[in-house]
Amino acid sequence: MSLCWLNVEAAALKSVRAFANQDKTRVVFDLSGEIRWAQARQKDGRLIVRLKDLSNYKTVPSMPKPASGCLAGASSVLDGRDVRYILQSQRCGTPKVFMLTPRDGNRDHRLVVDFPHAGGNNVQTASSSSAAASSGGKSLKQLESELFAKYSSVGSDGLRSMSPKQAREYDAALAKLRQDYAKKNSVQTRTKSTFVTNTEERETEEVKDTVAPPKAVEVKAVARPFIIAIDPGHGGKDPGAKGKRGVREKDVTLAIAKSLAGYINTDKRLRAVLTRSSDRYVDLDTRSIIARNKKAALLISIHCNSTPSATSARGTEVLLLSSNRAQRENSKVTRTGSSGKLIGGAGKVLSNSKGNPYLEEMVVDMSSQNSRAEGYDLAAEILKSIGSFTKVHKKKPVYASLAVLKAPDIPSLLIETGFLSNRYEEIQLNQPNYQKQMAYRIFLGIRSYYEKNPLNDLKSRIDSDSRGKNNAVASTTTHTVQKGEYLSKIAARYNVSVAELRRLNSLKSDTVHAGQILKVPKK
Question: Can you say how many angstroms the Cα of residue 71 is from the centroid of all Cα atoms in its chain?
Fold first, then answer.
């Protein structure tokens, strides 16, 4: 039990927040200034936190119960100008109550209550038992209790109290006690993970509970929607990266992917498909095959970043397939004779190319270049959208050699949603609302891109696959652009419109180059 007495003017309780992560459930009382406060633990597991002489004692806010964690309930009782908050814990360890002062002069005072989750910080291991034996039979918890008794005294209301000076001396003595105990008993690792320093407390406090984005309400799709494949990275026997708090990449990616699919399905022009919808393993090569089988015109793979050496690294980045890797994968497609399976016009042209290897190689390369160009523009829009919500690691799309992005006929992106190796971002990425916000911002980027590039133009890659079924290729021919030719000249030669040529070839402008192969309709 502790009490802090201060001669200050009455302060107001501005808000009460509660949230949970993997290690603990935290309650934060936001105050306009310093206050007198006390705590008392009951045998039935209740913790009573008394906030004394509040200026707004009649209108104090109620405490929200976190969606997860070990708090079973909470209530408040008015006692004169004091307010007692009664926190009922369930499967919680010993709570810790402490005051955080403003930093940089722009933050409120905060009274923080931490309930460690049972089975974690509150469990005494074999190493800690042997450590206690080497400390005269006393555990660290017992030594801390004795230290607290030394720097506090029992008040008239039966609660122990500390003056500000005593509190400062106690904090310094407590830090030294823990350091000496760790060195003496060779349990440095456990001390670091179990007893959080003041710096860590402040950093954890800065990870606020994310505000939930708008709710995703699915609408009925049009007859032939634009299909977007969402690929949750890793899964099953492949957990991916793992943070120090135990957050697994495969769980985060699946949660974000499901939320993203929900937002995509709010647009009647779009429809989402998942390469996996549960915790199961999917081979990297299979992921792009699933997208192609679903006639997807876009593949977005969701991942989390991690680095063993730079734990300060943080932020989101978007990756695209590098040109060297693209060339290698394109060669495989033509070498294995699978080019006819590609989506859209490229696949149809190649399936009727009569084994012309030069035409086959050129068409696959062009399809790959167009897909990567479209992917870059889309990635830039997504990064811009995410950057308005959270930190971005790289401001521009990054090229990398990644197997999941190898499809030459499908614009493919890989989004690293944050660093699990960063303690701050690991907490964020484990928050359901943060996962939903990340998904929502990705969706806004997709929607922004398609507003600038109408879906009717983009769908031309797959339109040719469904138009006419058996005679789709028979209704078109190809033209190789010669030096000095331009799009309007080619259109006049074949008696077609420039707009028709742009649509058939997914061109974003009227610019063409020598050697480029264009599809033109037969008359």
Answer: 26
